[in-house]
Design a protein that fits this description.
Low-confidence stretches: 188-194
Helix content: 25-40%
Mean pLDDT: 92
């Protein structure tokens, strides 16, 4: 008697559970696009080289073409379809729109997912190859254009919209920093008053 080559799995995608049978060899990319009709995630090279299929798995950037769907069971998956909340675009999406961080748009979902994951990595203090001081005490490296380019280097844009992509990521980072400062301000003023 042979071993089964498929399983029924439950994927947690964009806050919803999806139960489906999948072949053990099926990638997360194929499950998203072909089984669940979440076509915002694009198939580019299908070899993990271009980043068009980037999604977030447990908040971390993942190229879905190299991730088996069965290995994603029970993990939180966020695709481009799950970025906007309450009818409002994610700040990275808005920055891409405002600054024309796209041309044909094919790589844009992967670029946006990668940027969101990259900004979280940066906020957590992860250095990159472009970081000049990688000591934990130094804190996160400034998000210079060089730093952003290095951190986004796994995502290719055949239209070469890189200048606008870097500007959009920088604007989103600034907006996030401004939002964090505004959230912290009441606590600091309350501490000063006490």
């Amino acid at each position: 008697m042979g071993l089964s080559t498929s399983s029924v799995i439950t994927l947690h995608i964009n806050g919803e559970k999806h139960t489906l049978p999948v072949d053990h060899r099926a990638t997360l990319l194929d499950a998203l696009r072909e089984r669940l009709d979440l076509t915002g995630t694009k198939k580019g090279c299908d070899q993990g080289q271009c980043g068009a299929c980037t999604v977030l798995v447990d908040g971390r950037r993942t190229v879905a073409c190299l991730q088996f769907a069965v290995a994603a069971e029970g993990r939180e998956i966020t695709t481009i379809e799950g970025m906007a909340t309450g009818g409002r675009l994610h700040p990275v999406q808005q920055a891409f729109l405002d600054l024309d961080g796209y041309q044909c748009g094919y790589c844009t979902p992967g670029q946006i997912c990668s940027a969101i994951g990259m900004l979280a990595e940066h906020a957590a203090g992860w250095p990159s190859a472009a970081s000049r001081d990688v000591r934990p005490a130094a804190g996160p490296a400034p998000l210079t254009p060089e730093e952003i380019r290095e951190r986004m280097s796994g995502n290719l844009c055949r239209c070469s919209a890189y200048t606008s992509i870097v500007e959009a990521v920088a604007r989103a980072a600034d907006a996030d920093a401004d939002a964090s400062s505004a959230t912290d301000a009441p606590a600091r003023s309350g501490e000063a008053a006490a």
